[in-house]
Design a protein that fits this description.
4 strands; 184 residues; four-stranded antiparallel β-sheet; alpha+beta
């Protein structure tokens, strides 16, 4: 007999970081042992993150999370503030910690907005050592960010990648979020 679990009953519990780290190590090890290239491992972790982001958005619709509700088309500057706030709410919800730094750049030539987010002491990567320097464990967080920001601003042209990772020997985890703008 299958056990049925109501996800709404577990929503406000803290993320069990030890369990999540164990999952990341197990999945990553399995994929690498089965000759999956590191870039594909990162993409699969991102895909898992996007699915987790969809789950968090479903929970939001049930009023069980602190992720902000959809916005009414803000002005450009308000949207930048909204995105920064949403980014910090995501990490606060998952880890009880905001990004240590968020910077943004508007690139008019390529018509996109870029955010760089830094976690100096990423709870997800702390005390982990990646099996290969190309494998970034927080690719799963990049996927969560990508999915939630896509939903919040109503655009599929949102991409997030982890560019530096504590588990690969970097001093911090850095994420780059790129949003292709319809018009500036």
């Amino acid at each position: 007999m299958a056990v049925k679990l109501n996800p709404l009953e577990i929503v406000n519990k803290k993320v069990n970081i030890v369990l999540l780290k164990s999952y990341l190590i197990g999945v990553t090890t399995y994929l690498l042992e089965n000759n999956v290239p590191p870039a594909q491992v990162n993409e699969l972790l991102k895909k898992f993150g996007r699915e987790a982001g969809r789950y968090l958005l479903i929970l939001e619709k049930s009023d069980k999370t602190i992720i902000p509700k959809n916005i009414i088309k803000p002005s450009f500057l308000d949207q930048k503030t909204y995105i920064r706030t949403t980014l910090n709410l995501i990490t606060n919800y998952l880890f009880g910690k905001s990004f240590d730094n968020i910077s943004d750049t508007l690139e008019k030539e390529n018509n996109h907005l870029e955010f760089r987010m830094v976690l100096l002491d990423n709870p997800l990567c702390k005390d982990l050592i990646s099996p290969l320097p190309e494998v970034k464990f927080s690719s799963i967080l990049a996927g969560i960010i990508e999915e939630i920001i896509r939903d919040k601003i109503g655009s599929k042209n949102v991409f997030c990648d982890e560019t530096r990772c504590i588990s690969t020997g970097d001093s911090l985890c850095e994420f780059v979020l790129k949003i292709k703008l319809d018009k500036i």
